[in-house]
Design goal:
Layout lengths: L2 H12 L4 H21 L9 H17 L2 H27 L24 H16 L2 H25 L7 H13 L8 H21 L13 H9 L2 H20 L3 H10 L1 H13 L4 H29 L9
Helix pairs in contact: 1-2, 1-3, 4-5, 4-7, 4-8, 4-11, 5-6, 6-7, 7-12, 10-11, 10-12, 10-13, 11-13, 12-13
Length: about 325
């Protein structure tokens, strides 16, 4: 194999990178690779080298869509939010000791000692949060796979048993989205994770106790999976949260804190999906559900574009490195 064919293979692998990256770093990358190969006396790529180059190229494409710093914040926020949501859901929907047992209908199919199969994903989600706060990225992502399997298993159990207490489709899809978003970057930033855990946990618990649509706060009556989305995290609650997110993002943009603004806008998307469904299904507000869906996506795309624009203006970018 000639050095020319080796260079052609390297250039073909570098073509997996985005055009702008290739213009800035492509020639330098090929030169470094050829120098290393020459120093090692190789006339062929090292084992796994081309696969690694292509993988890094795909990662750069992901960075074009959503910058690495943004994804790290999104992952950290999402893992905290997922843990808080599942924990409060457990106490208000799945755990029979969380409310007056006499208010639980007798025809609820039990899953062991629980009122539905949600603990199949609640436990791994909480372990994800612990692993992230403890600083283990690999373990967090490994547990995320288990959590997604738990979501699928809970949905299958619900389908097999016909448990009207869920976890329903809104719950399982929402939790799956949170887990996926918690896996798109490095989730080990403790402050955003803990802040999201505290904010979502306190807000969800208060809404679960107050039950504002019923005008009967602080009661311990059973509400079930559907009631969780129609009474506790009611459509108007999620819509109001969307308004708060919009204002927060605009304020952060005005302060030129584009990375944080983008992270909040992206991390809001699973909640926007839940708001879209609950507004349409529980509130019958199809127009409002359409507005919040389109508005959330548009806000996300706009802020991500702002991040890209600022990055290009600054002329920043990671130089090519060899692992």
């Amino acid at each position: 194999m000639t050095s020319t064919s080796l260079e052609e293979q390297y250039r073909a692998a570098v073509r997996w990178y985005p055009p702008r990256w290739r213009r800035r770093f492509g020639e330098a990358m090929v030169g470094v690779l050829l120098d290393v190969a020459d120093g090692e006396g190789r006339t062929a790529p090292a084992t796994g080298e081309l696969v690694d180059l292509r993988g890094r190229g795909l990662a750069e494409w992901i960075n074009v869509v959503c910058a690495q710093d943004v994804r790290a914040l999104v992952a950290s926020i999402s893992v905290g939010a997922a843990a808080a949501f599942t924990l409060t859901y457990f106490f208000f929907v799945s755990w029979p000791q969380g409310f007056d047992r006499g208010t639980v209908p007798e025809n609820v199919p039990l899953f062991g000692p629980f009122l539905n199969a949600a603990p199949l994903f609640i436990a791994p989600v909480l372990l994800m949060f612990v692993a992230a706060v403890a600083g283990s990225r690999v373990l967090t992502h490994a547990i995320a796979v288990v959590a997604l399997l738990g979501v699928v298993s809970a949905a299958l159990v619900r389908s097999a048993t016909g448990n009207w207490n869920g976890p329903g489709s809104t719950t399982v899809v929402f939790v799956a989205l949170l887990v996926i978003f918690a896996s798109i970057g490095d989730p080990r930033r403790r402050l955003p994770s803990l802040a999201a855990f505290g904010l979502v946990g306190i807000a969800s618990a208060l809404l679960g106790f107050l039950r504002l649509p019923t005008a009967r706060p602080w009661e311990t009556q059973f509400v079930g999976d559907a009631g969780w989305w129609s009474i506790a995290l009611a459509p108007w609650v999620l819509a109001s949260a969307g308004g708060i997110v919009l204002v927060s993002v605009l304020v952060l943009l005005a302060q030129r804190r584009t990375v944080l603004a983008a992270a909040i806008a992206v991390a809001w998307l699973p909640w926007a999906a839940a708001a879209t469904v609950t507004l349409k299904v529980f509130a019958g507000e199809e127009a409002d559900s359409f507005v919040i869906a389109i508005g959330s996506v548009a806000l996300c795309l706009f802020v991500l574009q702002q991040v890209r624009t600022r990055t290009i203006r600054r002329g920043t970018g990671d130089a090519p490195t060899r692992a």
